[in-house]
Design brief:
two-stranded antiparallel sheet, single chain, alpha/beta, 11 helices, about 35% helix, 9-stranded mixed β-sheet
Length: about 350
């Protein structure tokens, strides 16, 4: 029955997807090859950094980049599967919203996979279990979908997103940075590209080739490019009225979609980053991972490279979504410029749970 349902869904969307795709575009390559900072070209954006993994640190990071956040604000957050152990602590988010975003909504979409967030009713029960009850949570695709144009895309001319997305004037992408089973890593790009695509149409366009049984057959560079084009549709819609905060804490190689089944955390906590440049912030997080010692980053690097996840970064640059070079500002030490290596020096080792 499940396979029949998926086949029927894919049949419904296949004609639309094929109509908007270009003539058999070819994905890029080298998504498994890290490019060192000194080998990159282009301008530099500003990325802020604090080691303070706390509500205070989250507020400090956000307040560096919120100048253009105004009007009706959606906070794009991965609220997690039931009792997921690694999501951003709800008390931190509650404190941030109480201080800086009192009229904002958390925004989410239903999942493409069957589970505890597959339907709106199940999703709302999971939100209650995880404690996301201190502000309104808008499930963007609860009442349908809309499409946004993808400027310069090679896979898509438009992306299907939750219909409520266009009710918002500004968006704050509040992201738990971690590994990801399909994407290699999940930063702001994944949070928006997958997280704003609606659960039935948009996510299927990104994940699945129509008229075949494997729901997750699109992978490696092609998947990274499709996901990134989805992100571009959303951030182009918001223009200057979007900012990004990445929390490098409890970084399992698994996405928060895996909940309590996520792989144990073995990568040390780092801190919180913020920027108005989506490429710069995700690139800075990756640079910090690669700047760790071999023992510290082994599992995360293996996950990123085996999935060819670094194509997220190079494709964002190709699409003009930001800069891969940046000025990293240390908020804990008077705002001086530091390197990714300095940011991860002397990290506390992960304490393994018995």
């Amino acid at each position: 029955m499940k396979k029949l349902m998926i086949a029927a869904l894919l049949g419904m969307i296949s004609s639309s997807m094929m109509a908007q795709a270009n003539n058999h575009p070819a994905p890029g390559n080298d998504g498994n090859k890290y490019v060192a900072y000194e080998q990159r070209t282009g301008n530099e954006s500003v990325v802020y950094f604090t080691r303070s993994l706390s509500a205070e640190g989250l507020i400090k990071a956000y307040e560096q980049v919120n100048e253009n956040i105004c009007g009706h604000v959606g906070v794009k957050l991965h609220t997690g599967e039931p009792k997921g152990p690694n999501i951003i602590p709800r008390e931190w988010v509650k404190a941030l919203m109480a201080k800086d975003l009192p009229q904002a909504n958390i925004i989410e979409t239903n999942t493409y996979y069957e589970g505890d967030r597959y339907t709106t009713d199940k999703h709302r029960k999971t939100l209650e279990v995880n404690g996301w009850t201190f502000c309104p949570v808008d499930i963007l695709d609860e009442q349908g979908t809309t499409t946004l144009p993808v400027a310069g895309g090679k896979w898509f001319k438009k992306m299907s997103v939750g219909g409520h997305l266009t009710n918002y004037d500004s968006m704050v992408a509040l992201t738990h940075f971690k590994g990801h089973t399909q994407g290699g890593f999940g930063g702001s790009n994944k949070n928006i590209g997958i997280g704003c695509a609606d659960g039935r149409i948009g996510k299927a366009w990104i994940h699945t080739t129509p008229n075949q049984a494997n729901q997750w057959d699109i992978a490696k560079e092609e998947f990274m490019e499709r996901m990134t084009e989805s992100t571009k549709a959303t951030i182009d819609y918001f223009g200057r009225h979007v900012c990004y905060v990445n929390v490098m804490r409890n970084m399992s190689v698994s996405c928060d979609c895996e909940g309590v089944a996520a792989a144990p955390v073995v990568t040390p906590d780092v801190g919180i980053l913020s920027s108005t440049d989506i490429l710069a912030i995700d690139q800075a997080c990756i640079d910090m991972i690669y700047a760790m010692t071999a023992d510290e980053h082994h599992d995360m690097v293996e996950r990123i490279e085996s999935r060819h996840g670094l194509r997220q970064l190079s494709y964002m640059k190709e699409l003009g979504m930001g800069n891969c070079r940046y000025v990293l500002i240390d908020l804990d030490n008077g705002g001086r410029r530091i390197t990714a290596a300095e940011a991860v020096k002397g990290l506390k080792p992960v304490v393994k749970k018995k």
